[in-house]
Amino acid sequence: MTLDERQLSALIGEIYDAALNQPEWVDVLAKIAHFVGGSAACLFAGSAGANAIHVYGTDPRYRQLYLDHYKDLDPATSRRLSADVDEPFAAEDVIPYHEFLATRFYREWAQPQQLVDFLACVLDGSMTSPAMIRVFRHERDGLVDEPARERMRLIAPHVRRSVIAGRLSDRMTAETATYIDVLDRFTAGMFLVDAGARIVHANSAGRAVLTAGEVLRSVDGRVVAGNKETDKDLRNIFANAGTGDDVSINGVAVSLTTRTGEHYVAHALPLTLDRRRRGGARKDFPVAALFVRKAAMEVPSPPEIIAKTYRLTRAELRVLLALVELGNVPQVARGLGLAASTVRTHIENLYKKTGAGRHADLVKLVVGFCNPLVS
User: Fold this and answer.
1) Gap between the Cα atoms of 331 and 316, Å rounded
2) Rounded to whole angstroms, what are the CA distances from 84 to 87, 88, 124, 235, 247?
3) DSSP H/E element including 176
4) Which one of 63, 97, 211, 354 has the largest count of C-beta atoms within 10 Å of its C-beta?
């Protein structure tokens, strides 16, 4: 390998590294400027509603002046929509050089910085996600020559692919953060587990369940149930989900009990993949989602929604919620301090307004309005 070949190989590797670590672009641009034969460089990789600009070697004051006043006067801006992707162009390719020297862009922005030329490459010419890399030539570098163009041609395709990869990475990171935020708002504990019961992800409620250690705990990164038989059942469920065998698409429910006798329900839901995709997945790929919640009736939040939906009075709503929590007419009457006959009258009104025919129907109605999210 010649020195240039080794330099190029190392530079290409760093260009792709910058896709996953955006701050590295400044150092990479310094090396690109040196490789191409310039004193400064910038990478513009915008997208709809956002701009990403990485700059090396220019005065910060002039960078801001460019954005505020000279961006639209820049000859490269007009060239962006017509230039071929990955094909370098210099000032003289856009406008005769003597005319370039007479432009406000050159006289007021480039000349004060002793910049005499530029070599640019369009990476994405679309209106929604424009991208361009540019190397500036200082007076000591001279005007753009053919060796500089050849060097830019060598690296431009790699910069373009790195920009695309960076956009995909940013999008996936943003989507992942959104999903995690949503999952953290669920009141039920949620775990994504692989075929070996390893916890790939747990939401806030799930981490709280593990911290309490009453029904589930984490041992060496695996979810473990306190009861040996239940733990065995869960492990079998996860293993079968990994192979696609013997797990209903609707999931499997498992009962969990604390030492003090409190009851929880764990619902294991397989994350279905066709066999071809599953066969190529990593061993730590999640194969099931495990939802854990206490076996207790949750109060709907806010309960006024039920009242508004069925046009219930405040007294009728109080009786409805008390029925769900306390059970029967005598208990509701004692709990609310009402006569049993008054409670029965409210229940009759509830049946008429909601269309329910029995106590169990009223309970189902309330369950349907329960909020699964942390309020």
Assistant:
1) 16
2) 6, 8, 9, 57, 54
3) helix 146-184
4) 354
Q: Which domains does the chain have, with CATH numbers?
A: 3-175 (3.30.450.80), 185-294 (3.30.450.20), 304-368 (1.10.10.10)
Which of 165, 132, 147 has the alpha carbon at shortest distance from 55? 132
Which has the closest alpha carbon to 164: 18, 41, 35? Answer: 18
> Tokens 């599953």 sit at which residue?
278
100-120: per-residue pLDDT in tens? 999 999 999 999 999 999 999
Give the Cα separation of 316 and 129 in Å (integer).
57
The 3-state secondary structure of 244-273 reads CCCCCCCCEEEEEECCCCCEEEEEEEECCC
User: How many other CB atoms sit within 10 Å of the CB of residue 289?
Assistant: 19
Residues 53-86: tens digit of each pLDDT? 899 999 999 989 988 899 889 888 877 767 888 8
